[in-house]
Amino acid sequence: MRITKLTTYRLAPRWMFLKIDTDEGISGWGEPVIEGKARSVEAAVHEFEPYLIGQDPSRINDLWQVMYRGGFYRGGAILMSAIAGIDQALWDIKGKALGAPVYELLGGLVRDKMKVYSWVGGDRPADVIRDIKRLREGGFDTFKMNGSEEMGLIDSARKVDQAVARIAEIREAFGHDIEFGIDFHGRIGAPMAKVMLKALEPYRPLFVEEPVLAEQDETYARLAEHTAIPLAAGERMYSRFEFKRVFQAGGLSIVQPDLSHAGGITECLKIASMAEAYDVALAPHCPLGPIALAACLQVDFVSHNAVLQEQSMGIHYNQGGELLDYVLNKEDFHIENGYIAPLPKPGLGVVVDEEKVIEASQRAPDWRNPLWRHEDGSVAEW
Ligand SMILES: [Mg+2]
Q1: 149 among the known binding-site residues?
Q2: pLDDT tens readout for residues 200-226
């Protein structure tokens, strides 16, 4: 079998799908994208074409190394996302060619069902209690929300109190019938992260995500010494070579590599194994589309330390497109009592509605995250 063609489709809300065709009529789908930089990743995907066209798609390990090492310069959000989507599509082809789901090719299931959670509250957390009530009816019992809006490097007790009051209200409304993680989203610097973690501790969140930005990863170990809340991070780390530093330094209880940003299934499986060796849990980042989610689930179902899976149904970013809009086998993504079953179909387990993808790609918006500024006019982390 030989790779014949790579086709990319940018789509609402902020996704990109990749289709890899072969000369035997089997095609695979991947989702290479960095939110807000879809065109850059698209260019990177097509720059890999000379390394892929005419090659045997079953040699995923070799093609991965060719893409990673073959170009001299490596790593980073754009290149690793391009590799990620290509890798997903190659696994999809392999599974379809062999008539088996990818998790079977990786050694088989380590669990019967995977815990998933839902976002609530949007960019500037609001109406969280109403949203949780609604989502509980849809089968969710675990949630994640942003922890704060803009926060200065040193900020007021008033702002901390506002953020903590919102969390207190949730615990008051639902007790411990629900679980939730709190995403600091890199909005908070190290000085205020310490203050916030201390103030939030009585409400016992499942985890705090990106307590500080990944570029301050040396801070995680120090923060962890000051709090019993498990700390999570990893959506802005792109390879095992970046993750190895945080494993060595300690501090994280959960790593959250993104299957569409960190080199795909091939790389994230290795990151998951490294995490297991450090007794660190895995919770893949996935605010993206159905192919990215399906790729995450392949790794979750073969990784003993996978504890939680993010997914984007109803997420605040999904303007103009929903998780299952381009999926024909919607029933396979059914969530019951907060769990999803292994996707039963060969490959990644997603049957893509190609006609709809082609049609929607004609009017793809260029999504960008908002640019926030502090009250004094300086740029704030979003
Ligand atoms: Mg996050």
Answers
A1: no
A2: 999 999 999 999 999 999 999 999 999
235 annotated as ligand-binding = yes
Q: How far is the CA of 155 from the centre of ligand 1 (A)?
A: 21
What distance in Å separates the CA atoms of residue 29 and residue 350, rounded to the nearest whole number?
8
The whole-model pTM stands at: 0.97
- Retrieve residue 67's tokens: 């893409």
Any binding-site annotation on 355? no
292 C-alpha vs ligand 1 centroid, how far in Å?
16
Structural domains present in the chain: 3-101 (3.30.390.10), 104-351 (3.20.20.120)
Tokens of 348: 């990644």
Please tell me the predicted confidence (pLDDT) of residue 209: 98
Q: Is 285 a catalytic residue?
A: yes
CA torsion, ordered 24, 30, 36, 42, to nearest 10 deg: -20
Helices (H), 9-121: 38-47, 49-52, 60-69, 77-98, 102-105
pLDDT of residue 22: 98
Ligand 1 centroid to Cα of residue 182, in Å, is 9
The yes-or-no answer on residue 176 being catalytic is: no
Q: Do 247 and 280 touch, CB atoms closer than 8 A? A: yes
Tens-place pLDDT, residues 124-166: 877 899 999 999 988 899 999 999 999 999 999 999 999 999 9
Spot the catalytic one: 285, 304, 334, 374: 285
